[in-house]
Amino acid sequence: MGDVLVKDEAFEKWSEETRFRFVGDFRDAYNTEQGTCYQITDASLKDAQDYDFTLTDGKEILKIQHTFAAADPENEYIGPKLQTAIITKLYSDLKHLKNVFVNIGFKNIQSKKDACILTTEIENIINNLINSRRLGPSTELKSVFHYRWTDELKPTVSQYISDFLTELSVYSSPYDQITFGYGGQSVAMMSDDVRADKAIRKKEGHYANPQDIILIVHYNFPFFGDFFEPAIKQKHSESPFKGVWIFDAWKDKFILIK
User: Fold this and answer.
1) Are 69 and 201 contacting, i.e. CB atoms less than 8 angstroms apart?
2) Do 100 and 27 belong to one domain?
3) What letter would DSSP give residue 130?
4) Quick check: 63 and 30 in contact, CB under 8 A?
């Protein structure tokens, strides 16, 4: 499917082309694993009841519910995504510059508005250094501006710089281009088996009678099956669902759990 980021969109909001491709791939994986001959029909994507799609093998109907693996979007997705967006915008606006290296340490940033203003603030500092002719070619990295929030003699910066950056360093560089280095806060990442566990438990609590439903947990983070696939299988071998599968978007494959 090509997407390895957390998504909020429910299955029914996907484009019809994307849904049919996903359903077809699952059909193939299910039939291969189970030795069955389920097929897509005209009614496969009709959400007549509380499930997302169906497959048919003669009179047998397979009901499938899709959900995303649990995640902490605030820490695991939104912040890193905005940091990358800031760097991309900085490079786009300043790519004409030469002999400049910029190192940025981000704090937790959650707002697109704050990200836009912060980008402008960083650009202003770099352009002011250029205009004052403090930046230029050098045989090695030469510091011309250094803000670190823990330094007592740090330069005066805007509120946005102090609120959202731990460091902003600008160097004259021997390289004939502008380059960036950056990093964000270290955050506790939810373990892989817990992501799947939370998603499955949540859906188990949603259905009164899930015995005839197949659950697919859409997993959008790098998936290392040797570590947690056995743990998930052990936890959910007695799941009330008829079957549980994980879709590993990183490797674009379906994995049978139960």
Assistant:
1) no
2) no
3) H
4) no
CB atoms within 10 A of CB 180: 15
Looking at the 3D structure of the chain, how many domains does it have? 2
Same domain, 44 and 93: no
Find residue 247's DSSP bridge partners.
218, 254
Question: In 10 A of CB 133, how many CB atoms?
Answer: 7
Q: Are 7 and 66 in contact (CB under 8 A)?
A: no
In a shared domain, residues 66 and 111: no
Query: Do residues 196 and 225 both lie within one domain?
Result: yes
Residues 246, 67: Cα–Cα separation, whole Å: 10
Q: How far apart are CA 121 and CA 177, in angstroms?
A: 21
Nearest alpha carbon to residue 105 among 127, 128, 122, 125: 122
Its pTM stands at: 0.59
pLDDT in tens, 143-185: 999 999 888 778 889 999 999 999 999 999 998 999 999 988 7
Q: How far is CA 115 from CA 78, 110, 149, in A?
A: 11, 8, 19
Task: Domain of residue 60: give its range.
Answer: 11-71+190-256
Helical H runs in the chain?
16-34, 73, 79-94, 112-131, 159-164, 192-206, 225-236
Q: Do 214 and 246 share a domain, yes or no?
A: yes
Structure confidence by residue, pLDDT tens digits, 185-224? 755 667 778 888 888 988 888 887 889 899 999 987 665 5
Q: What is the per-residue DSSP string for 55-91? A: EEETTEEEEEEEEEPP--HIIIIIHHHHHHHHHHHHH
Whether residues 67 and 85 share a domain: the answer is no
